[in-house]
Design brief:
The chain is about 70% helix and about 0% strand. The protein has 21 helices and no strands.
């Protein structure tokens, strides 16, 4: 089930809320309601998607129990942890990477003139498998490190993994983020919490169906014109690059907004996952603002264990490149995703150089240095998003769009470019205005909405309603990160 559907907004969410509040005072009954409701939400289209999820959750629950058993020797605990990691990574690899690996092996054999052919094994990717795999692994790793005590209730643990708002596209939660909230009888949401939740949900829906999906049409328009070649393709790569940057941000952050708002209606607070990343001035700041829960997960469970800031400068550089390469691979199977990860790792290293580091420090004061820093990194980041989009099953688009960008001086003579540019500006200006307001407040736009007095808030929401009626896509796209 998708957040932007009538089934969710008018059916599933209110029905589950009513049922939950009927049994809210019973910890067991309310947990069962959330577990069953979350399972229905996830398996709305295909029931078999639940199988790998339940397998991963069950294995990690029992691994946690075994590691916490009194008197268990350290080497046995380590073996249980390794078993958990092998199961989780094997499930992830089987569904996400096996098809790519077998196709790559056949291509390599053909290049080397070897007659052997590996059977191509490709399966449908269960939505959100990358997200819940990281969550279940964080549980066993934290239990092994003794950072978190084993959850004795399998039902509560299953609720942690299945809880529907974050299940498909995050935020990526750790046991300490959610399990404690799920174990208690939570009070009914207060009027201020309901107001905050609705601000997040309504802004998320608006951002998805008005901004993300309409900009997605412009990206597809750019691809069509670029494929057609000729003068109509001149500069259309700029629309593609800027458009996809805005599309993926609106799409992904909209999911998180709706997830956080939906969870808050049940008395659950999910961590922030975005903080106006469009105005980042450096790659380090970008990853502190973009997909925050993934960034901190990679830092705590991969980067620091691999050495982090320890060792020589060369070793630190290798760790950064390796970590970011794996971060790219987490997003999808393909060399373009890995290249995108390495690209960001290289940017991190370049921005560590003293001249650039001093320039970024100077930009803290605002003014021209800050604007220049934002514009520079935005340009670099947009180039990276072109690689990311090409990795999503569209390998030829990257070269195609680079060729289009090489003809940018002729863009104003292209009717396609002028039309698309006009539409992109029409959508980008209100979006960037909202983001800039939030950036200045060091918050997100729903936080700004929540601070408004009733009359201004009502005016904004009514304006959003009419804008949505006029400009919302009637048949939009799935959330991009469902594929990861």
């Amino acid at each position: 089930m998708v957040f932007q559907s009538f089934e969710y907004v008018l059916g599933f969410l209110p029905a589950l809320l009513i049922l939950y509040h009927i049994v809210r005072r019973s910890r067991i009954a309310s947990t069962i309601v959330l577990v069953v409701g979350s399972a229905i939400f996830y398996a709305w289209k295909t029931a078999w998607w639940l199988i790998p999820l339940i397998v991963a959750a069950t294995v990690d629950y029992f691994v946690g129990v075994k590691m916490s058993a009194e008197g268990t020797p350290e080497h046995i605990r380590r073996r249980w942890l390794i078993f958990s990691l092998v199961v989780n990574l094997s499930l992830l690899s089987a569904f996400k990477y096996l098809g790519w690996l077998t196709i790559s092996a056949n291509s390599m054999f053909a290049y080397l003139g070897i007659a052997a052919v590996v059977p191509v094994i490709a399966t449908t990717l269960p939505p959100g498998i990358s997200f819940y795999t990281f969550e279940t692994m964080s549980y066993t790793i934290d239990v092994y490190r003794r950072h978190y005590k084993t959850e004795p209730s399998y039902l509560v643990y299953l609720n942690f993994v299945l809880f529907f708002p974050h299940l498909v596209a995050g935020p990526i939660l750790r046991p300490g983020d959610l399990i404690g909230q799920l174990k208690v009888v939570r009070p009914v949401a207060t009027p201020s919490e309901i107001r905050e939740a609705l601000c997040y949900i309504l802004w998320g829906l608006f951002k998805k169906i008005v901004f993300a999906d309409n900009i997605g049409d412009l990206v597809e328009f750019a691809v069509t014109k670029a494929n057609g070649g000729g003068s109509e393709s001149a500069g259309i790569g700029l629309i593609y690059a800027l458009g996809f940057t805005l599309q993926i941000y609106c799409d992904f952050s909209a999911y998180t907004d709706i997830a956080r708002g939906s969870a808050l209606l049940f008395g659950i607070k999910l961590p922030r996952n975005f903080l106006t990343p469009l105005f980042a001035r450096s790659p380090r700041e970008f990853w502190q603002r973009w997909h925050i829960t993934l960034s901190t997960w990679i830092r705590d469970y991969l980067y620091i264990p691999l050495g982090g800031h320890r060792g020589t400068a060369a070793r630190q550089a290798l760790v950064i490149l390796f970590t970011m390469g794996l971060a790219g691979l987490w997003h999808g199977a393909g060399m373009m995703f890995i290249a995108w990860g390495f690209y960001h790792g290289l940017l991190i290293l370049i921005y560590r150089l003293p001249p650039l580091a001093k320039f970024i420090d100077k930009s803290d004061l605002g003014g021209v240095p800050a604007a220049l820093a934002m514009a520079t990194f935005c340009t670099l980041n947009v180039f990276g998003w072109m690689m990311f989009r090409a990795g999503s099953g569209k390998p030829g688009e990257f070269e195609l769009m680079l060729n289009s960008l090489s003809m940018l001086p002729n863009a104003l003579g292209s009717d396609a470019f002028v039309l698309a540019a006009r539409q992109l500006v029409f959508l980008a200006v209100p979006l960037l205005t909202a983001e800039w307001i939030a950036y200045r407040l060091k918050a997100e736009f729903p936080d700004f909405l929540n601070r408004l007095a009733p009359v201004p808030l009502g005016f904004v929401l009514v304006s959003m309603w009419f804008a949505g009626m006029m400009f919302a896509k009637r048949s939009g796209y799935d959330f991009i990160y469902f594929a990861f």
